[in-house]
Amino acid sequence: MSTVTRRLPAVNVDTARVLATASVGVTMVAYLTVLRYIVTVAGEPPLFYGAVAASLAAAALLAALVRPRTAALVTAGLLAAGTYYYVVTLPPSFDLAEALGPMVADAWSMLSGLSILRIINAGTWALAITPAPTLFAAYLAFRRHYLAGAAVAGGTLGLFVLTGNADAATTLIGAVGVAGAAGFGDLAGGTTEVAVDEGRRDVLFGLGGIVAVASVVDVVPEELVGEGGGGFGGLGGGGTTEANLLGSADSVELAGSISLSPDVRFAVEADEPGYWRVGGFDRFTGDGWVRTGQARAYDGDRLATPPGPDRAVEQTYTMEGRMGNMPALWKPRSVERSDTGADVLPDGSLRPVRAFREDESYTVVSRVPTAVPTELRSAGTDYPEDVVDRYTALPGNLPDRVEARTSRITGNATNPYDTARVVEQWLSNNRGYSLDVDRPSGNVADAFLFEMEEGYCTYFATTMAVMLRTQGIPARFAVGYTAGERVAADRWVARGLNAHAWVEVFFPEQGWIRFDPTPAGPRVAAEQERIDDARSEGLDSVDTNETGPGEWTPTPEPGTDSDPNEITAVSPNSTPSLRQLAEGANETATVPGADGSGGGGTAGGGFELPEIPPREQLALGAVVALGAAAGARKSGLTGRAYRAFWLRYQPRSDPAADTRGAYERIEYVLSRQGRPRAEGETVRQYAEAVGDRRARRAARLYEQAVYGGGVSEAEADEAVSLADSVVSNRGGPA
User: Fold this and answer.
1) Which pTM does this prediction carry?
2) Does the pLDDT at position 516 exceed 90?
């Protein structure tokens, strides 16, 4: 009996088409990664995943049933529906007719660098925009219009490049996807629209190049060339607390190790000292803060006062140099006089229309809250709905253990005021102060609470605000300057090292009240040590003719707006004191993982081998690599990628070579933002003509390294630091 072997029919797989489709998918993944981040910070991730899955399923169905024109109409309908969904979910207090102009202005501002996270309903906006490009790009890929699909996905990613929400790595992945779609589209061929695709191929390669170049341009500071304006300028180089906290007009990103700037910034004449507040931030992203909303012009009318008791304090600020901030005691009521004019930020703080110059000044009257603890304890929890929505929101990926530990620490507190005091004291008692820290890779508040032992004000304030939000207490992150050095009975001088961050907590019928969890003693000691070092080094910028040793004693740092003698006990008869509550919490809540969530890491602190990426990631990486190889020569992508890497990462060798390389990076940025160095123009002449003080200092070091007696390692380190600042610091001086 013979047997007959039957072979299965061979499956003809067009590898080039599969890889071209996958390359379009890579570009889609790039912009979807940005949207997922926005939704995680400000929305509901499950809805996002559902929208993506539904869009892909609909794309597959439409690809089998309808022509591109019909699919385009469906996409337009999705955009219209998304816009309607966004509008109907705006807060009830939002007047659409009155806000139509500002909405158009916001749309234009986004194209010139306004982060989408600054939109009040950013999560809703991201959900509304997700279906349309996802469906259409996938539809085109399924219909073998690979380059058109890459154009839709790349254009969506390009929007996020312009808004600054797509980082360099994400942008580069998207560009490689475009290049892969083009390269494998060449290899695939055979579609009925080959002629159309051929006619568009060069345009789409240009798109890939534009997206890649945008990742390079995105690191060039806008204020680098010429006098410039805008932004929070005049704060010195990167790497200082001042540049970190006040270097960007509408966001703060937590950094690692940091230093203090001893440079004098301004003098204040006032009846009393305080925290010279610059602004507040409402949206926590997990690794920083963003201020939502747009500023409006100050029209001369009096601003709102705190709802509770207050007192009027007039202040006159005189600038010692260029300054893009407009500090004022909280809460500013009116601007009596200003050499620049003023804008009002969404949180009620002030910002100059243009940067102040040296010796320019302004006068502002503030209404300082004077509520005492008994009033704050009885304030209750009847918060306005918009305050709850805006100031208790947390990223969707915040670990549950943060809320669990906060609940245990504050378990004996019976009202929001005592809860805030307990958290404030617990952080001050259980975490040390240090400027030398490693920036955590995950959620900053979670890391500071469970993994870190010390940090500086940004970490303390961030963690306290997040802890309070987990308890449903409205809190925000505020920045500005501490009082500074007292030089007369009614006059103080603030330096860059006085830049500080703290927390403000909202109380019904009282408004926003300040809390400061950063240990004051170690912070003040570090500031004084930096001043002493600067004086011993002979730095001219550390003192004015009013400041110096022996003139007045340092002003005691103002505490929160309440009587410290009244905060030692919640209720003498029923609960322990706040200090005991904080210390008792320390006894039961200091071991990472005690919440039952695990402490992370390996047992015993041993070495842990890295995990092998899943097969899906390996396959995706292979598609990216092959697509890059197929399109790199035609697109010039490798050269752009090299320049992006070269700008950000400078290998070190000897001091002379390091100094030359640092200046070359600065000159490249200057040439991109302004003009290239002319033939016959010396390095110093060029830096003087188009650069700032960092460029001029780097030019002098370059000449010393090339034509002088050489440079030391310390000077080479300074040159590299200057180059890093020029490339990465957006808030530096113009």
Assistant:
1) 0.68
2) yes
